[in-house]
Amino acid sequence: AEYMGDEGLLPNMAMREDQVKKAVAFLSNEKVKASPLDKKTAFLLKKGLTQQEIDEAVRRVDSASKPTTAIQHSIPSTSETGETVSKTTTAPSLVPKIGPPDVKERLQKGRETGSLNLRHCQLTSIPTEVFDMSNLTSLFISGNPITSIPEEIGNLKNLRVFHAVKTQLTTASLPENLWTLADLRELFLSYNQLTSLPVGIGKLEKLQRLDVSCNKLSSLPDEMANLKELQILRLNSNQLVSLPKFLQDLPKLNTMVIEGNPLPTEVKEAARQGTKQLMSKL
């Protein structure tokens, strides 16, 4: 099965309402509510949902659990003198009050579970408390206007999953200490403004899944040849005109997505036949 990243297999893929509804039903189930979000997300991704659809389902479930607000209505009536007047009545709204997620509540849940979901929280920076969570194994900050990641991310020595999709990160805003997270298995940096990948990425020798699609990459660093555990690599919608030969030497790489790059026609045609055929054209 093709791999689905934080925004699905293809850029700008429309959300499927039927899949969102199924995800809402799953997430609302009392038996799964207490499970960590990353495990529920992984399950839904395996079922073929995109991360965008999952995020929408999470938003709906969160919104449904919030109290409704009262709406005032002006109702015309006739006074004793025959004049038309307005009376204001209050009625409960059928629409849940939707606002920014409760960041403090999410931070507390992250401390308890080791999985911190800060997606779509309208954050411009990662809360400093995050870097004191030594037990953290998963961190999701996608969908926030975050422009930089502090060096303190290196404190999260147990981090295995890091998603920073659709933020405002550039190559210069990726800290050196990001590459010291030796246990990192999954790194999603798609839909950002990356023009290159720092050579430090070669230090992530346990990395299994890398998504850098929908950026402005024109090349890949030779140091990526060290990523011997890499299984899935998403490069679609960048500015790559060629692919490095060292990709052939990554023994576990079985899925590579390259659509949307100005690559030679023969490479694109090989990619349509599968990753094995693509490798033969490098």
Overall geometry comes to: globular
Mean pLDDT over the full residue set = 84
Q: Cα distance, first to last residue? A: 23 Å
Number of strands: 9
Structural class: alpha/beta
Largest sheet: 7 strands, parallel
Counting H and I runs of at least 4 residues, what is the number of helices?
6
Assign a percent range to the helix content.
10-25%
What is the assembly state of the chains in this entry? single chain
Note poorly predicted spans: 1-13, 68-75, 77-82, 88-99
Rg, please?
23 Å
Strand order of the largest sheet: 3-4-5-6-7-8-9
Give me the strand/helix succession. HHHEEHEEEEEEEHH
Strand content: 15-25%
Can you offer a commentary on this structure?
The protein is an alpha/beta fold and 282 residues long. It has six helices and nine strands, in the order αααββαβββββββαα. The strands form two sheets. The protein has a seven-stranded parallel β-sheet with strand order 3-4-5-6-7-8-9. Strands 1-2 form a two-stranded antiparallel ribbon. α1 packs across α3. The longest helix has 14 residues, at 51-64. It is globular. Mean pLDDT is 84; it is low at 1-13, 68-75, 77-82 and 88-99.
Brief characterization of the structure:
This protein is of the alpha/beta class and 282 residues long. It has six helices and nine strands. Helices cover 21% and strands 16% of the residues.
Give me some keywords for this one:
alpha/beta; seven-stranded parallel β-sheet; disordered N terminus
Question: What are the SSEs and their pairings?
Answer:
Blueprint: H1 17-28, H2 37-46, H3 51-64, E1 68-78, E2 84-96, H4 103-113, E3 115-117, E4 138-140, E5 161-163, E6 186-188, E7 209-211, E8 232-234, E9 255-257, H5 265-272, H6 275-279
Helix pairs in contact: 1-3
